[in-house]
Amino acid sequence: MKHVLQTTxxxxxxxxxxxxxxxxxxxxxxxxxxxxxxxxTACCAIEFMATAASRFDFARFGMExxxxxxxxxxxxxxxxxxxxxxxxxxxxxxxxxPQPKWVISMGACASTGGIFDNYSMVQGIDxxxxxxxxxxxxxxxxEGLLYGVLLLHKKIKGESLTDPELRSEQPxxxxxxxxxxxxxxxxxxxxxxxxxxxxxx
Amino acid sequence: xxPSADALRATWGSAIGRSGLARDGETIVYVARDALRxxxxxxxxxxxxxxxxxxxxxxxxxxxxxxxxxxxxFVRSLSRRTDLRVKVELDxxxxxxxxxxxxxxxxxxxxxxxxxxxxxxxxxxxxxxxxILMWETYAEGYPLRKDFPLRGRFSRAEQVxxxxxxxxxxxxxxxxLSIAEAYEDLPAEMQERLRKGERGTIPFSE
Lengths: 201, 206
What we know:
The structure holds 2 protein chains of 2 kinds. Chain A has helices spanning 22-31, 43-52, 87-96, 108-112, 142-157, 164-167, 181-186, and strands at residues 6-8, 17-19, 36-40, 75-79, 102-106, 133-135.
């Protein structure tokens, strides 16, 4: 906290003064009271629960209250694979969260589609909504998720209140996509055991 | 070999095709498509057969395009503790249609919807034949068919666009889950109370 708040004692007398940049103060408060919205769909959610429980306890980092309502959440933690059928649900939940909001993509499947390079799976949730921190792993250990949370803290502490980009909604474009189509297609180039398969037979 | 196989052949004659043992020791009986519902009804109702539990319905398409697609019924007699597999062969070049067994086992409803969703087999007489796993506007085909590419037919961008354009509420409507559909199955006194517009009471709550 020392680097954020500077306590200056004036002449050894009361009253004391607290001096800080507004950005630092607000970001300090925000970073240390993140309310997570867990979107758990698979085994990553089990690790997420372990992270929330007493042994790892992410309440230590200000995430005491899990917001199971998106309206009261700050950070969406997408833990697990997301099929296309669930994509509009995930997007709706993201849209319902108030600004400022952040997204952690937990695990290989949420980040890239993982081993599920097939007809039914979203190839990384960043094709559907903007992601701030990717946590790799299959599933990531709780330490991994905590490290991701700390990275998000670091990112939040570097933000500025005056940056309009961070405070504006990012709606889907007129094509109904959140990123250019060629970029989405690039995300599922043939690899692995499905190299013999083509998009159109 | 399950004695039901011989009993079937004795009763239904030419409607029963070949039969044999699966690798795990269960008996497989092939049934002609047009006789399927009668044979299943017979298996369900006849004393001594009593296959009262439909475990699963699935389908198999072989890599060999000449082999027909098979719809597989796993039935079990709970009282006799006996299993039987019934298969129906459908020519891939013809229309994939088979009679629904929902009138016999109500639990076949979702199982047949799943086979329809994944293989495109239409079940004649099914009360509500819609996709069940993929969303209802899914336009790429039937994913477990051999001619279906692993990643689907559309580009990823098109798949994302179609997925995001879907309205999830439309598929999980409260109407679908409402008590209205279950009305006929409710006990008489509950129907009576609902008809009068009464609300339920919590016991011991004054």
